[in-house]
Specification:
93 residues, alpha+beta, 5 helices, elongated, three-stranded mixed beta sheet, 3 strands
């Protein structure tokens, strides 16, 4: 699997796995780049790309969205608060 192919993560899961069986590594190189629906950058110039049904988002835009939601979302649920604590403080043994 090529490095560029590893950069694209699909949320459509099983549907894409069926397609993977039919593709060879050399055909992956000829596939067109995947573009972020938010910033327009291709998967070749970002760390990771997430593909959804008709929309894509790169890792950088995802981070911006998460930061915005945390800052603006002053009324986080208890579950979200727990996840954030684990993320920022690390898993306690």
């Amino acid at each position: 699997m090529s490095e560029e192919e590893n950069k694209v993560v699909s949320l459509s899961g099983a549907r894409d796995k069926k397609e993977e069986v039919h593709h060879k590594e050399d055909s992956a190189q000829s596939e067109p780049p995947v573009y972020c629906s938010f910033c327009g950058r291709p998967n070749t110039s970002v760390l990771k790309m997430i593909k959804g049904p008709g929309v894509n988002i790169c890792s950088e835009c995802t981070l911006i969205c998460v930061q915005y939601l945390i800052i603006e979302g002053s009324a986080l649920s208890d579950d979200a608060k727990k996840l954030l604590q684990i993320f920022w403080q690390g898993k306690k043994s």
